[in-house]
Design a protein that fits this description.
311 residues, alpha+beta, 5-stranded antiparallel β-sheet, 4 helices
Protein backbone atom coordinates (compact mmCIF):
# COMPACT_ATOMS: atom_id res chain seq x y z
CA UNK A 1 0.00 0.00 0.00
CA UNK A 2 1.58 3.22 -1.20
CA UNK A 3 1.00 6.57 0.34
CA UNK A 4 1.62 10.00 -1.26
CA UNK A 5 1.66 13.18 0.77
CA UNK A 6 -0.71 16.00 -0.08
CA UNK A 7 0.65 18.27 -2.84
CA UNK A 8 1.77 21.64 -1.55
CA UNK A 9 0.75 24.62 -3.77
CA UNK A 10 3.91 26.60 -4.38
CA UNK A 11 3.94 30.12 -5.91
CA UNK A 12 5.23 28.61 -9.15
CA UNK A 13 2.31 26.18 -9.35
CA UNK A 14 -0.24 28.94 -8.63
CA UNK A 15 0.93 31.24 -11.44
CA UNK A 16 -0.60 29.28 -14.38
CA UNK A 17 -3.98 29.12 -12.65
CA UNK A 18 -3.88 32.84 -11.91
CA UNK A 19 -3.00 33.59 -15.54
CA UNK A 20 -5.98 31.60 -16.77
CA UNK A 21 -8.23 33.35 -14.26
CA UNK A 22 -7.00 36.78 -15.32
CA UNK A 23 -7.61 35.97 -18.98
CA UNK A 24 -11.16 34.86 -18.19
CA UNK A 25 -11.83 37.97 -16.13
CA UNK A 26 -10.45 40.23 -18.88
CA UNK A 27 -12.59 38.49 -21.47
CA UNK A 28 -15.68 38.90 -19.33
CA UNK A 29 -14.93 42.59 -18.81
CA UNK A 30 -14.36 43.13 -22.53
CA UNK A 31 -17.62 41.36 -23.32
CA UNK A 32 -19.48 43.48 -20.79
CA UNK A 33 -18.05 46.68 -22.31
CA UNK A 34 -18.41 45.55 -25.94
CA UNK A 35 -20.15 48.28 -27.98
CA UNK A 36 -23.59 47.47 -29.27
CA UNK A 37 -23.71 46.84 -33.04
CA UNK A 38 -22.74 49.88 -35.14
CA UNK A 39 -21.50 51.69 -32.03
CA UNK A 40 -24.94 53.10 -31.17
CA UNK A 41 -25.24 55.16 -28.00
CA UNK A 42 -28.46 56.85 -26.90
CA UNK A 43 -28.07 59.24 -23.96
CA UNK A 44 -30.79 60.71 -21.82
CA UNK A 45 -30.96 64.41 -20.86
CA UNK A 46 -27.66 66.00 -19.92
CA UNK A 47 -25.52 63.99 -22.35
CA UNK A 48 -25.53 66.46 -25.22
CA UNK A 49 -22.17 68.26 -25.15
CA UNK A 50 -22.89 69.11 -28.78
CA UNK A 51 -20.54 71.04 -31.01
CA UNK A 52 -22.62 70.97 -34.19
CA UNK A 53 -20.94 70.23 -37.50
CA UNK A 54 -23.68 72.17 -39.28
CA UNK A 55 -26.46 74.52 -38.29
CA UNK A 56 -29.07 72.18 -39.71
CA UNK A 57 -32.09 71.56 -37.48
CA UNK A 58 -35.63 70.29 -37.95
CA UNK A 59 -38.77 70.50 -35.82
CA UNK A 60 -40.61 67.20 -35.42
CA UNK A 61 -42.60 65.29 -32.79
CA UNK A 62 -42.48 68.34 -30.53
CA UNK A 63 -38.67 68.32 -30.63
CA UNK A 64 -35.96 70.30 -32.36
CA UNK A 65 -33.49 67.90 -33.98
CA UNK A 66 -29.95 69.10 -34.62
CA UNK A 67 -27.03 67.47 -36.40
CA UNK A 68 -23.86 67.60 -34.35
CA UNK A 69 -21.49 64.80 -33.49
CA UNK A 70 -24.69 62.74 -33.56
CA UNK A 71 -28.39 63.45 -33.59
CA UNK A 72 -29.36 65.84 -30.80
CA UNK A 73 -32.94 66.46 -29.64
CA UNK A 74 -34.01 69.59 -27.75
CA UNK A 75 -37.24 70.94 -26.30
CA UNK A 76 -38.03 73.96 -28.53
CA UNK A 77 -40.03 75.63 -25.74
CA UNK A 78 -37.19 75.94 -23.23
CA UNK A 79 -34.11 74.73 -25.13
CA UNK A 80 -33.47 71.84 -22.74
CA UNK A 81 -31.69 68.78 -24.06
CA UNK A 82 -34.00 65.78 -24.46
CA UNK A 83 -31.73 63.03 -25.78
CA UNK A 84 -28.67 62.35 -27.90
CA UNK A 85 -27.97 59.58 -30.41
CA UNK A 86 -24.28 58.99 -31.13
CA UNK A 87 -22.22 56.33 -32.90
CA UNK A 88 -18.71 55.59 -31.68
CA UNK A 89 -16.07 56.67 -34.17
CA UNK A 90 -18.56 58.31 -36.55
CA UNK A 91 -19.95 61.82 -37.09
CA UNK A 92 -23.46 62.65 -38.28
CA UNK A 93 -23.38 64.87 -41.37
CA UNK A 94 -26.94 65.34 -42.62
CA UNK A 95 -30.51 64.81 -41.48
CA UNK A 96 -33.73 64.36 -43.46
CA UNK A 97 -37.21 63.35 -42.36
CA UNK A 98 -39.00 60.32 -43.85
CA UNK A 99 -42.51 60.72 -42.52
CA UNK A 100 -42.19 60.78 -38.75
CA UNK A 101 -38.71 59.22 -38.74
CA UNK A 102 -35.32 60.94 -38.84
CA UNK A 103 -32.84 59.58 -41.39
CA UNK A 104 -29.19 60.41 -40.66
CA UNK A 105 -26.19 60.07 -42.97
CA UNK A 106 -22.84 59.46 -41.22
CA UNK A 107 -19.27 60.11 -42.35
CA UNK A 108 -18.40 56.39 -42.35
CA UNK A 109 -20.96 55.68 -45.09
CA UNK A 110 -23.75 54.42 -42.84
CA UNK A 111 -27.39 55.55 -43.03
CA UNK A 112 -29.61 55.14 -39.96
CA UNK A 113 -33.27 55.74 -39.18
CA UNK A 114 -34.41 56.97 -35.77
CA UNK A 115 -37.91 57.45 -34.39
CA UNK A 116 -37.78 60.78 -32.50
CA UNK A 117 -40.83 60.11 -30.33
CA UNK A 118 -39.02 57.39 -28.36
CA UNK A 119 -35.46 57.76 -29.83
CA UNK A 120 -35.44 54.15 -31.05
CA UNK A 121 -32.81 53.35 -33.69
CA UNK A 122 -34.90 51.53 -36.29
CA UNK A 123 -32.39 50.35 -38.91
CA UNK A 124 -28.83 50.73 -40.26
CA UNK A 125 -27.71 50.43 -43.88
CA UNK A 126 -24.21 50.76 -45.35
CA UNK A 127 -23.67 52.33 -48.79
CA UNK A 128 -20.53 51.00 -50.55
CA UNK A 129 -18.10 53.74 -51.58
CA UNK A 130 -20.09 56.51 -49.88
CA UNK A 131 -17.51 57.30 -47.18
CA UNK A 132 -14.69 57.58 -49.75
CA UNK A 133 -16.73 59.91 -51.97
CA UNK A 134 -17.75 62.08 -49.01
CA UNK A 135 -14.06 62.58 -48.20
CA UNK A 136 -13.09 63.06 -51.86
CA UNK A 137 -10.47 60.32 -51.73
CA UNK A 138 -8.39 59.90 -54.88
CA UNK A 139 -9.65 63.12 -56.46
CA UNK A 140 -7.27 65.79 -57.84
CA UNK A 141 -6.04 67.96 -54.99
CA UNK A 142 -7.39 65.69 -52.27
CA UNK A 143 -3.98 65.30 -50.62
CA UNK A 144 -3.67 69.08 -50.20
CA UNK A 145 -6.99 69.52 -48.38
CA UNK A 146 -6.89 70.37 -44.69
CA UNK A 147 -8.95 68.46 -42.13
CA UNK A 148 -11.40 71.38 -42.00
CA UNK A 149 -11.77 71.36 -45.79
CA UNK A 150 -12.36 67.60 -45.79
CA UNK A 151 -15.01 67.95 -43.11
CA UNK A 152 -16.73 70.77 -44.99
CA UNK A 153 -16.65 68.75 -48.22
CA UNK A 154 -18.21 65.77 -46.45
CA UNK A 155 -21.03 67.94 -45.07
CA UNK A 156 -21.74 69.47 -48.50
CA UNK A 157 -21.76 66.11 -50.25
CA UNK A 158 -23.92 64.47 -47.61
CA UNK A 159 -26.60 67.10 -48.27
CA UNK A 160 -26.71 66.20 -51.98
CA UNK A 161 -26.45 62.44 -51.46
CA UNK A 162 -29.41 61.77 -49.15
CA UNK A 163 -33.03 62.09 -50.31
CA UNK A 164 -36.25 61.14 -48.54
CA UNK A 165 -39.40 60.74 -50.63
CA UNK A 166 -42.77 61.30 -48.86
CA UNK A 167 -45.13 59.36 -51.16
CA UNK A 168 -47.73 57.16 -49.39
CA UNK A 169 -45.04 55.01 -47.79
CA UNK A 170 -41.86 57.09 -47.31
CA UNK A 171 -38.57 55.79 -48.69
CA UNK A 172 -34.93 56.82 -48.76
CA UNK A 173 -32.54 57.27 -51.69
CA UNK A 174 -28.75 57.67 -51.57
CA UNK A 175 -26.96 58.96 -54.69
CA UNK A 176 -23.22 58.88 -55.41
CA UNK A 177 -21.44 59.13 -58.78
CA UNK A 178 -20.97 55.36 -58.92
CA UNK A 179 -24.08 54.03 -57.19
CA UNK A 180 -27.69 54.79 -56.28
CA UNK A 181 -29.56 52.83 -53.62
CA UNK A 182 -33.16 52.96 -52.39
CA UNK A 183 -34.48 51.76 -49.02
CA UNK A 184 -37.99 51.31 -47.72
CA UNK A 185 -38.26 53.42 -44.58
CA UNK A 186 -40.67 51.01 -42.89
CA UNK A 187 -37.89 48.48 -42.30
CA UNK A 188 -34.80 49.62 -44.21
CA UNK A 189 -35.31 46.95 -46.86
CA UNK A 190 -33.11 47.48 -49.95
CA UNK A 191 -35.41 48.05 -52.94
CA UNK A 192 -32.89 48.87 -55.66
CA UNK A 193 -29.15 48.98 -56.14
CA UNK A 194 -28.14 50.58 -59.44
CA UNK A 195 -24.76 51.35 -60.98
CA UNK A 196 -24.30 53.44 -64.14
CA UNK A 197 -23.12 51.90 -67.40
CA UNK A 198 -19.39 51.52 -68.01
CA UNK A 199 -18.54 55.01 -69.26
CA UNK A 200 -21.21 56.84 -67.28
CA UNK A 201 -21.45 58.45 -63.86
CA UNK A 202 -24.36 59.82 -61.85
CA UNK A 203 -24.47 63.46 -60.80
CA UNK A 204 -25.76 63.96 -57.24
CA UNK A 205 -25.46 67.74 -57.56
CA UNK A 206 -28.10 67.88 -60.34
CA UNK A 207 -30.36 65.23 -58.76
CA UNK A 208 -33.86 66.33 -57.74
CA UNK A 209 -36.78 64.71 -55.96
CA UNK A 210 -40.55 65.12 -55.92
CA UNK A 211 -43.15 63.58 -53.63
CA UNK A 212 -43.05 60.45 -55.80
CA UNK A 213 -39.62 59.97 -57.35
CA UNK A 214 -35.92 60.78 -57.36
CA UNK A 215 -34.55 61.88 -60.76
CA UNK A 216 -30.84 61.19 -61.20
CA UNK A 217 -29.00 62.57 -64.27
CA UNK A 218 -25.97 60.83 -65.69
CA UNK A 219 -23.17 61.84 -68.03
CA UNK A 220 -21.55 59.32 -70.38
CA UNK A 221 -18.61 59.28 -72.76
CA UNK A 222 -18.59 57.30 -76.00
CA UNK A 223 -16.07 54.50 -76.34
CA UNK A 224 -13.44 54.02 -79.03
CA UNK A 225 -12.81 56.85 -81.47
CA UNK A 226 -16.07 58.58 -80.51
CA UNK A 227 -15.56 60.41 -77.24
CA UNK A 228 -18.58 62.66 -77.57
CA UNK A 229 -20.43 63.07 -74.30
CA UNK A 230 -24.11 62.27 -73.93
CA UNK A 231 -26.46 61.88 -71.00
CA UNK A 232 -29.73 60.72 -69.58
CA UNK A 233 -32.04 60.73 -66.58
CA UNK A 234 -33.19 57.77 -64.50
CA UNK A 235 -36.35 58.17 -62.47
CA UNK A 236 -36.52 55.96 -59.37
CA UNK A 237 -39.74 55.01 -57.58
CA UNK A 238 -40.62 52.32 -55.08
CA UNK A 239 -44.24 51.73 -56.04
CA UNK A 240 -43.58 51.16 -59.77
CA UNK A 241 -40.79 50.41 -62.22
CA UNK A 242 -38.06 52.96 -62.93
CA UNK A 243 -37.96 54.89 -66.19
CA UNK A 244 -35.30 56.36 -68.47
CA UNK A 245 -35.06 59.60 -70.45
CA UNK A 246 -32.39 60.24 -73.08
CA UNK A 247 -30.88 63.73 -72.75
CA UNK A 248 -27.80 65.76 -73.47
CA UNK A 249 -24.86 65.71 -71.03
CA UNK A 250 -25.68 69.10 -69.45
CA UNK A 251 -29.40 68.60 -68.81
CA UNK A 252 -30.80 70.68 -65.93
CA UNK A 253 -33.91 70.01 -63.84
CA UNK A 254 -36.12 72.23 -61.70
CA UNK A 255 -38.95 71.00 -59.45
CA UNK A 256 -42.21 72.80 -60.23
CA UNK A 257 -44.41 71.21 -57.54
CA UNK A 258 -44.87 67.93 -55.69
CA UNK A 259 -45.00 65.89 -58.88
CA UNK A 260 -43.77 67.90 -61.89
CA UNK A 261 -40.22 68.66 -62.98
CA UNK A 262 -39.07 71.14 -65.63
CA UNK A 263 -36.33 69.62 -67.80
CA UNK A 264 -34.05 71.99 -69.71
CA UNK A 265 -32.02 70.17 -72.33
CA UNK A 266 -30.36 72.83 -74.44
CA UNK A 267 -31.35 74.63 -77.63
CA UNK A 268 -31.81 71.48 -79.72
CA UNK A 269 -34.07 69.34 -77.52
CA UNK A 270 -35.52 72.31 -75.68
CA UNK A 271 -37.67 72.42 -72.55
CA UNK A 272 -40.30 69.94 -71.35
CA UNK A 273 -42.27 69.10 -68.24
CA UNK A 274 -42.26 65.59 -66.79
CA UNK A 275 -44.93 64.33 -64.41
CA UNK A 276 -43.29 61.96 -61.91
CA UNK A 277 -46.62 60.71 -60.58
CA UNK A 278 -47.83 59.60 -64.01
CA UNK A 279 -44.26 58.79 -65.16
CA UNK A 280 -44.98 60.56 -68.43
CA UNK A 281 -44.18 63.88 -70.12
CA UNK A 282 -46.73 66.62 -70.07
CA UNK A 283 -48.04 67.49 -73.54
CA UNK A 284 -47.44 70.97 -74.84
CA UNK A 285 -50.30 73.38 -75.39
CA UNK A 286 -51.58 73.21 -78.92
CA UNK A 287 -49.64 70.06 -79.85
CA UNK A 288 -51.25 67.46 -82.06
CA UNK A 289 -50.90 64.82 -79.33
CA UNK A 290 -52.53 66.91 -76.62
CA UNK A 291 -55.91 65.13 -76.90
CA UNK A 292 -54.32 61.68 -76.60
CA UNK A 293 -51.53 62.54 -74.13
CA UNK A 294 -51.17 60.72 -70.82
CA UNK A 295 -50.63 64.04 -69.08
CA UNK A 296 -52.50 67.13 -70.26
CA UNK A 297 -51.00 70.60 -69.84
CA UNK A 298 -51.50 72.12 -66.39
CA UNK A 299 -53.92 75.03 -66.34
CA UNK A 300 -55.56 76.52 -69.40
CA UNK A 301 -53.89 76.89 -72.76
CA UNK A 302 -55.19 80.34 -73.60
CA UNK A 303 -53.53 81.77 -76.68
CA UNK A 304 -53.02 85.51 -76.52
CA UNK A 305 -54.59 87.27 -79.51
CA UNK A 306 -52.14 88.62 -82.04
CA UNK A 307 -51.78 92.39 -81.98
CA UNK A 308 -53.81 94.21 -84.60
CA UNK A 309 -51.78 95.36 -87.61
CA UNK A 310 -50.86 99.01 -87.65
CA UNK A 311 -53.16 101.13 -89.84
Amino acid sequence: MSWKPLRVLTPRSILPALAVLLVLLAGAAAHANKPVPFGDRVAEPGGADASPVTAQSLDTAGLELRVGPGLEAYNPANGEHAWSYRREGATALYLSMAGENAVVLWDDGLVTSVRPSDHEVRWHRAVPGLAEWLRGEGEPGSAQRTDTQRQQLAVERAAIALYTVPEVKPWVAVVTPGLTMGFRDADGDLRYNDRPAGNCSYDPLRTVRTDYAVLVPRTCTGSGAAHQAFGGITGYRLDSSNWQLATGPAVAMRVLDGQRVQIEDGPIVGSRVFDTRAAAPESACGSRTEVFAAVRPQGSCVVEPAPAPAP
